[in-house]
Design a protein that fits this description.
The structure holds two protein chains of two kinds. Helices cover about 45% and strands about 20% of the residues of chain A. By secondary structure, chain A is α/β, with parallel strands linked by helices. The longest helix of chain A has 19 residues. The longest helix of chain B has about 110 residues. Classes of the chains: A alpha/beta, B alpha+beta.
Chain lengths: ~140, ~525
């Protein structure tokens, strides 16, 4: 019974979080810095950083732009439409300098990806719930 | 021009190998090169499509993994010149009444490549396009790949083809040489063996180790030669047996022939003896006839000599009486008579002497030597001899004789005794014919024998004709055959005309007869006038 109640509560909390429009940056414990400025975070998610300071390769994780979190990320982080972000990553992928972000349809999957992938950084609408993950501060705050 | 089997095979193989070499050197690389290019174009097109598909997925599903994989795959290609994502942008006028669609490069890899949106496939580059149609954007992927590697591959294909062609040519020629040798050698061996067999050497054998048709032919040939040898040996054996049989038969025959020859020789000796006897009889008959004529000739003067000698004996008795009577006138008359008689005795003695001398002369010159002779005199002499010879035997025989000699005849070279014998023989036959006719004919029949000589251009003719019974046609061809006679047995040898014919032939002349029954016969002797 406890097994059923805990995920249900987590989902409910995330839904509340999303409706509030606050996004949280989560990162793998290995390689990902603990804090960013918003501009620095945008630069990372625009593909301008290939490796973290400890040499770990940067792995980006985003919610699909068809999700609410995805749409919020485009507007709050990139300041662009989802189409422009997609085109940007299309061009960047073709140039091949960095890997394109991995897109997810559920925050849980995104969190699991970040938790198990060294150097992975993602944006979700919720708190960090998994081991090997941490909340990355943006401009000194847990969310933006 | 003779072209051997080996050369023919070699030429054929050379032509085939050459054709195949040309094919593999020219056609095969050409096809291979085109196939390579087509495949490479297809590959490039697929790569462009894969990138376009990856881009489509990325645009529609934000899944860039496929695109990245595709790009990583393309970038690994050393021949990659560029990959460009082209975007079709719709540009409206200010009043939004019209729009234009412009195609512009969105991103190009490598970034340094200066993209020309009108670029197309050329000799140095292959350009392939793949469309992208999503809700987010329309455009296309243009992928440009250098043809350098393809050209290198084509060169490699040509080089390989050249090497393979050379190897094929070399191998083909070696195979051709081996093939021609493997065919021509047994064929030559067969030919040599066949020639030897043709020359009679039945021991020749063809050695062939091949198990093909030529090998079978060699075996068949050897069997054939063996059969021929067996047959030849059999034939030789049979031939030898036949020869031995023939030799024994020959020996027996030779014995028989020797016996027969001996018998024949004996018969021939008998025959020759008989013939000689007959010839001698004929000669003796002729001699008898001659002797009779000669005797008559000599008898006449001897009669005169005897008569006048007897008269002189009587006159001498009368002279003795007249001397005793001393009648000088009578003595003178008697002496004159004796002298006259002596003159006659001498005259007729000389006549007889002349006859004897003539006979001696005949006998001396009877050695068969030719000498110039007067044909007219010869005819006349033998006509008289024949007549007197017949008269000596038959006092009742009487015949009218006519002579017609050509006085222009010159002496010709003949053996007079032999030609005289011929004339005598023919005249005797004529006398016999008319005397026989006389016995059968009426009293008014007057026997007539005529002799005539004529000179022709290079010949002379002697005609002896009678008005006797004639020769029947049935026996006309037989009269010159030896021992043929119509006279009663003992009266003729049958050799007269046969010998006459041979004598005239030996003189280079000819003897002919014309006869008509109950009218007479005419013999014509033709002799060369030389």
């Amino acid at each position: 019974m406890k097994k059923l109640i805990l995920p249900l509560l987590l989902c409910c909390s995330l839904a509340v979080f999303a409706q509030n429009g606050a996004l949280t940056v989560i990162g793998n414990s290995n390689g990902v810095p603990s804090s960013f400025t918003k501009a620095g975070l945008k630069s990372v998610f625009m593909g301008n950083t290939a490796n973290w300071p400890n040499g770990t390769k940067v792995k980006l994780a985003l919610m699909k732009f068809t999700t609410t979190e995805g749409q919020q990320t485009c507007s709050k982080l990139f300041g662009m439409s989802s189409g422009d972000v997609t085109k940007h990553w299309l061009m960047t992928s073709m140039k091949g300098r960095v890997d394109a972000p991995v897109f997810f349809t559920s925050a849980d999957a995104l969190q699991q990806f970040v938790a198990r992938t060294p150097g992975a950084i993602g944006i979700v609408a919720g708190a960090v719930t998994l081991k090997n993950s941490k909340t990355v501060l943006v401009d000194g705050r847990n969310s933006f | 021009m003779f072209i051997g089997v080996k050369t023919k095979i070699l030429l054929t193989v050379f032509a085939i190998v050459l054709l195949f070499t040309i094919f593999s050197l020219l056609y095969f690389p050409s096809i291979q090169g085109r196939t390579l290019l087509t495949n490479y174009k297809s590959e490039v097109q697929n790569q462009a499509k894969t990138i376009a598909l990856g881009a489509t997925i990325a645009l529609s599903e934000q899944n860039f993994k496929g695109l990245q994989t595709a790009m990583d795959f393309v970038k690994e290609n050393d021949e990659l010149r560029f990959v460009t994502l082209m975007q079709n942008d719709t540009t409206w006028t200010a009043d939004s009444s019209r729009f234009t669609i412009a195609t512009s490069p969105m991103v190009t890899f490598p970034e340094t490549y200066k993209m020309d949106d009108k670029i197309a496939t050329s000799d140095s580059i292959i350009v392939m396009r793949a469309p992208i149609q999503t809700a987010l954007m329309n455009g296309e992927i243009i992928l440009g790949v250098s043809t350098q590697s393809i050209k290198a591959k084509q060169r490699k294909v040509r080089t390989t083809a050249l090497l393979i062609s050379g190897a094929i040519f070399l191998l083909g020629m070696l195979i051709g040489l081996w093939l021609s040798r493997s065919i021509s050698h047994p064929v030559k061996a067969l030919r040599t063996a066949a020639r030897k067999v043709g020359e009679g050497d039945l021991t020749s054998e063809v050695k062939s180790h091949s198990k093909d048709e030529i090998g079978e032919l060699a075996i068949a040939f050897n069997n054939m030669v063996k059969d021929i040898k067996n047959l030849s040996d059999l034939t030789l054996k049979q031939e030898k047996e036949k020869q031995e049989m023939l030799a024994s038969q020959n020996e027996a025959l030779e014995k028989q022939v020797a016996e027969r020859t001996k018998e024949l020789k004996t018969s021939l000796d008998h025959l020759k003896a008989t013939q000689a006897q007959l010839v001698q009889s004929e000669k003796m008959a002729s001699l008898g006839e001659l002797t009779a004529g000669i005797a008559h000739e000599i008898q006449n003067p001897l009669n005169f000599v005897n008569n006048f000698s007897e008269i002189n004996t009587e006159l001498l008795d009368e002279l003795k009486t007249a001397i005793d009577a001393n009648d000088s006138a009578e003595i003178k008359d008697l002496i004159q008579d004796i002298k006259d008689n002596e003159t006659k005795i001498v005259l007729h003695g000389k006549r007889a002497d002349g006859i004897v001398k003539g006979m001696l002369q005949h006998s001396r010159s009877s050695a068969g030597q030719k000498e110039p002779s007067d044909i007219n005199a010869l005819c006349d002499e033998y006509l008289r001899l024949a007549y007197h010879g017949l008269r000596a035997k038959d006092k009742s025989f009487n015949v009218k004789m006519e002579t017609d000699y050509d006085n222009t005849l010159e002496k010709i070279n003949i053996v007079p005794q032999e030609i005289g014998r011929v004339i005598l023989n023919i005249i005797n036959n004529a006398f016999y014919a008319v005397s026989e006719m006389k016995k059968l004919a009426a009293d008014s029949y007057q026997p007539l024998v005529s002799i005539k000589t004529r000179k022709l251009n290079d010949k002379i003719e002697i005609h002896v004709a009678d008005n006797g019974d004639g020769i029947p046609d049935a026996i006309k061809e037989k009269i010159f055959q030896p021992f043929f006679t119509t006279k009663p047995t003992g009266s003729g040898t049958g050799l007269g005309l046969s010998l006459s014919y041979d004598i005239i032939k030996a003189h280079g002349g000819s003897l002919h007869v014309k006869s008509e029954e109950r009218k007479g016969t005419e013999f014509t002797i033709l002799l060369p006038n030389s």
